[in-house]
Amino acid sequence: MKCVMQMLRNCLAKRRLCQKRLVTKDGHCNIEYGNVRYSNFFAYMLDFWTTFVEIQWRFVFVFFVASFTLSWFMFGLLWYWIARSNGDLAWQQPSANHNVCVLNLYGMTTAFLFSLETQTTVGYGGLDITPHCPSAIALLIIQTLIGAIINCFWCGVVMTKISLPKKRVKTIAFSKMAVICQNRGVICLQIRVANLRKSLLIGSQIYGKLLRTTITPEGETIILDQVSVDFMVDVGKDNLFFVCPLTLYHVIDKTSPFFEMSVETLNQQEFELVVFLDGTAESTSSSCQVRTSYLPQEIMWGYKFLPVISRSKDGRYRVDFSNFDKVEPTVTANSPYHYQCPTNGFDNPLFVVISNDSSLSNKM
């Protein structure tokens, strides 16, 4: 029973953290739009290509089936109307020497089947168009062109959705936690990122934004105020050689938004650190962006990441992803610029009191 209650509390805690985020751990923006005007909604219809590319797959499947079925039915009605106008239908009792527009088209069902066979370029040999009706020839050309346009549109939508850069970012992993520790004499906030594919991200750049609510000196409350947070590796912050997991760090100096925080006050803060990684996929040459976020509860002060790169006996480099999210405690000062001095003095047995008056009298 205790285990079930503990699991329930953990689930509720994770849910509360997800609700507090602007950017989820997998990069989705937790935001909703309200009171959108119909004119703005109409703008989505004008940009229908982007709308179809961004909608979910289940809606793509529904629109895919509906577009073909509806086009077959609409052209079936037109074929039925042409046959009816020419007197080809069975209930019109055409004569034996009557010139029909479409052979073996006797009703709405056969008209729908002929429309389907025409648009899908499938001919079973039972329904054939004759050269006696110019309107039927024109309709055949129009349906063939429209069917080709529909095929090209949906092939483009499917191929674009499959090759979206969003799928590439699924193979970019950030560490679940961030750490604050000492690195080469300075206190740094560190995160770890890894590329799970062997293909590189060309021109990779890393940066961050600290989101928090601030109050200006004029008394104005700014929600989601953004402060830039620079991340880098030992070689800089641009054009990362992303062939193995990298540990990115942000130096906590006087210009850092984390400068006024300490190990005691970190969890009392309300902010969200959003980290961005931009790059170009080597295999598809498409730009992509990976995002994740860290709340104060996900930043561990006084810990460092375990190493993940080792070298085998045959000289090859090996990456151990089992240590990717693991950390270990380390000795870290509270802050590189804040020193905790004792308020009470202490006795020094070698301290000698010198009287200023006696020294002056001797000089006189």
Structure description:
The protein has 364 residues and is of the alpha+beta class. The chain has 2 domains: 106 residues, Helix Hairpins (Orthogonal Bundle); 162 residues, G protein-activated inward rectifier potassium channel 1 (Immunoglobulin-like). The chain is 32% helix and 25% strand. The chain contains 8 helices and 16 strands. Strands 3, 4, 5, 9 and 12 form a 5-stranded mixed beta sheet that branches. α3 packs across α6 and α4 crosses α5. The N and C termini lie far apart (88 Å). The C terminus is likely disordered.
Highlighted features:
single chain, 364 residues, alpha+beta, Helix Hairpins, 2 domains, 5-stranded mixed beta sheet, 5-stranded antiparallel beta sheet, 8 helices, 16 strands, elongated, ion transport, transmembrane helix, membrane
SS-derived structural category: alpha+beta
Proportion of strand residues:
15-25%
Counting H and I runs of at least 4 residues, what is the number of helices?
Answer: 8
Please provide the count of β strands.
Answer: 16
Share of helix, binned: 25-40%
Low-confidence stretches: 335-364
**CATH architecture name of the largest domain:** Sandwich
User: Strand count, sense and closure of the main sheet?
Assistant: 5 strands, mixed
| CATH secondary-structure class of the largest domain | Mainly Beta
Element order: H for helix, E for strand: HHHHEHEHHEEEEEEEEEEEEEEH
Shape: elongated
